[in-house]
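TASK: fixed-backbone design
INPUT:
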């Protein structure tokens, strides 16, 4: 009788794990993010861990972005803080939490990185970073919403070295700054302005109204300066990668190359027509996959 009960219990756990893994994979694949092209080359267990991380990011990002009252956003983010606490004592309540617990146990993911991500989403919800933050605040924001993901990711990739941590630090910032530069106009329509006050002041932009900033004659100078900061982070990330296993860091390299192309296309387009979209072609992404995804 005891053996039968144990068998049923094991099957129940296996079913729950399968449901959790299916859930995070569907959340990830529904996004259509460039993120997916890099992680598809990973072995199955590592790929599933990245799906769990991405689904967590997606779910807390939706809380910050959706049109809810601030108190409701804070409540939902607080629920996720409690979920992270529960995961680390072995008692997750959410499907995504269960998928994360599997990844945490397999790859020694750090609790602080998940807490940092939630803190970053709270900065969005509280509008701490969305109305011309200082350069210092913007850097903190980039660390919380992007470099923290890098710190989690490199562990899943199989890297725990100081060089891998530096990749996470620099590449996370580079990717987030590229996103900011790509989305300036769309963010402004939502009354968001991530461009740092330091650069706005440097080039004589006194207004902090997002659409007025977008239309200001000095906006190209601000964008070029921020793009140079992003390029420096890409260079630092590329240099740090030389101290890591090339095979392990293939997903990070592919992500870096795709986003570098986005930034280059933005710079080639220029900053006078911020509504004109910039995308990396499927052919270019395929070339990156073939060139760097298999070796």
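OUTPUT:
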């Amino acid at each position: 009788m005891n053996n039968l009960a144990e068998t049923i219990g094991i099957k129940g756990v296996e079913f729950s794990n399968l449901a959790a893994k299916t859930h995070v994979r569907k959340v990830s694949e529904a996004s259509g993010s460039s993120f997916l092209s890099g992680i598809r080359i990973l072995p199955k267990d590592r790929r599933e861990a990245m799906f769990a991380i991405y689904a967590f990011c997606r779910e807390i990002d939706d809380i910050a972005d959706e049109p809810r009252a601030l108190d409701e956003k804070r409540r939902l983010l607080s629920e996720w803080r409690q979920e992270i606490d529960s995961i680390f004592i072995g008692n997750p309540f959410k499907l995504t939490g269960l998928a994360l617990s599997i990844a945490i146990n397999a790859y020694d993911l750090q609790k602080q990185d998940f807490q940092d991500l939630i803190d970053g989403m709270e900065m969005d919800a509280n509008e701490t970073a969305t109305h011309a933050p200082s350069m210092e605040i913007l850097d903190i924001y980039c660390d919380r919403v992007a470099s923290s993901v890098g710190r989690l990711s490199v562990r899943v990739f199989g890297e725990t070295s100081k060089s891998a941590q530096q990749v996470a630090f620099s590449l996370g910032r580079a990717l987030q700054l590229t996103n900011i530069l790509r989305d300036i106009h769309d963010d402004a329509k939502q009354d968001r302005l991530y461009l740092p006050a330091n650069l706005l002041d440097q080039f004589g932009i006194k207004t902090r109204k997002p659409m007025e900033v977008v239309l200001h004659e000095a906006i190209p100078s601000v964008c070029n300066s921020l793009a140079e900061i992003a390029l420096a982070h890409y260079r630092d990330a590329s240099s740090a990668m030389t101290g890591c296993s090339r095979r392990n860091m293939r997903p990070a390299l592919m992500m870096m190359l795709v986003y570098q192309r986005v930034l280059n296309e933005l710079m080639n387009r220029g900053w006078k027509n911020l509504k004109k979209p910039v995308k990396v072609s499927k052919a270019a992404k395929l070339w990156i996959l073939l060139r760097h995804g298999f070796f």
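COMMENT: The chain is about 75% helix and 0% strand.
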